[in-house]
TrEMBL record:
Lineage: Bacteria, Candidatus Kerfeldiibacteriota
InterPro entries recorded: IPNS-like_sf (IPR027443)
Name of protein: Uncharacterized protein
Length: 363
């Protein structure tokens, strides 16, 4: 163990980005105001709170039930669902498979009260969470897919065996596409708010990119207070849209180095900018660092739920979207000698492979 960490984490409110006006009339003054709000949130915080009037939150209930059932399954059943050869694309990754990178240069730049809980360790410990991976795409993308790709994507989807997991793929599709639709629309709005082409962030996602529903799973009743669920890290995707977890614990860092919790209303999502968004804007968007911690109040609630016969398993639903075959570099709006030196042209898939090697200890 390393330094002691201040455990006081303030909660802040961010303006809610409403996708409704943009969906109704993208060129209206109301829609453009929401686009500007989305851009400012990504640039200043690397995170935004999003409301999507299309979202049917009932899909979340079935999804949550199935994920909690899988989290309570035997280790043998879970192991049968591993597909490690796909490189974080399909199936189950057990707890301990992911480890946050060590960021001493970032941590040292934070004031004592804003340092991550990960800083309490000389090296970040393996994450306590496990993660499921389910490929995502929107139905309207299918007509432009290369021959055979759709059949391949559908054929690769897997579900745990057993009657208790009936409807698994459909439930993942319904909830995952809810998040993906919000992610794509919000990314378009961020681009317009920044004054660049509407499809600047999304073209590489839709045309050959990768989107995943990648929920995290951990039994809260088996954790100690303040134990790390996911260490201090950023996401390496373009944007991630998160459904509200059934237990709290997410802590994020704003661009000015504040460690905070974000209040997310029950009918809203949380969107976080990833490394690809930062890369494509030459740092104008900030890839937000975050970690997940077992907060004492959440541990108490989980143990009470377990005593009453309920599930103490925390499920975080995350939709990650990234490019693959597109070459990333700063847009001409942000392209200078300095930004090109920091963010030189690179194939999106090469950057992702590099990040996966780092977090799985293969680099």
């Amino acid at each position: 163990m390393g330094q002691l960490i201040d455990r006081r984490v303030p909660t802040i409110d961010l303006p809610v980005v409403n996708l409704g006006p943009y969906l109704t009339d993208p060129g209206s003054s109301a829609a453009l105001a929401e686009c500007e709000k989305a851009w400012k949130a990504m640039a200043n915080f690397g995170v935004s709170v999003v409301r999507d009037p299309r979202a049917e939150l009932r899909h979340r209930a079935r999804f949550l039930q199935l994920m909690q059932c899988f989290g309570a399954a035997t280790p043998e059943l879970q192991e049968d669902c591993r597909r490690d050869q796909t490189g974080m694309a399909i199936g189950w990754w057990p707890p301990g498979r992911e480890t946050a990178r060590h960021w001493p240069e970032v941590v040292e730049g934070l004031t004592e009260e804003n340092r991550p809980f990960t800083a309490g360790f000389d090296r970040p410990p393996p994450d306590r969470k496990g993660r499921w991976h389910h490929r995502l795409w929107l139905p309207e993308w299918e007509r432009n897919m290369a021959d055979g790709l759709l059949a391949t994507l559908k054929g690769e989807q897997i579900a745990p065996p057993g009657e208790q997991f009936e409807g698994w793929i459909e439930a993942n599709d319904l909830w995952g596409r809810t998040l993906l639709s919000a992610n794509i629309t919000h990314a378009e709005m961020v681009a317009l708010g920044a004054g660049v082409e509407r499809d600047y962030f999304t073209a590489g996602i839709i045309n050959g990119g990768t989107s995943l529903l990648a929920p995290t799973i951990v039994d809260m009743s088996k954790l100690n207070e303040w134990e790390l669920i996911a260490g201090f890290h950023y996401d390496f995707d373009r944007f991630a849209m998160h459904g509200k977890a059934n237990f709290g614990g997410l802590i994020v860092w704003t661009r000015d180095g504040r460690r905070v919790r974000i209040r997310v209303p029950g009918n809203c999502f949380l969107c976080q900018a990833g490394a690809e968004a930062e890369y494509m804007t030459g740092g104008a968007i900030w890839k937000g660092f975050h970690e997940v911690v077992a907060l004492p109040r959440e541990i108490e609630v989980a143990r009470t739920i377990r005593s009453a016969g309920g599930s103490p398993i925390r499920v975080g639903s995350h939709c990650f979207s990234q490019g693959r075959s597109d070459v990333m570099q700063p847009h001409p709006k942000w392209r200078t000698e300095q930004t090109l030196a920091a963010y030189p042209p690179i194939l999106a898939s090469d950057r992702q492979a590099y990040e996966i090697r780092l977090i799985t200890g293969q680099a």
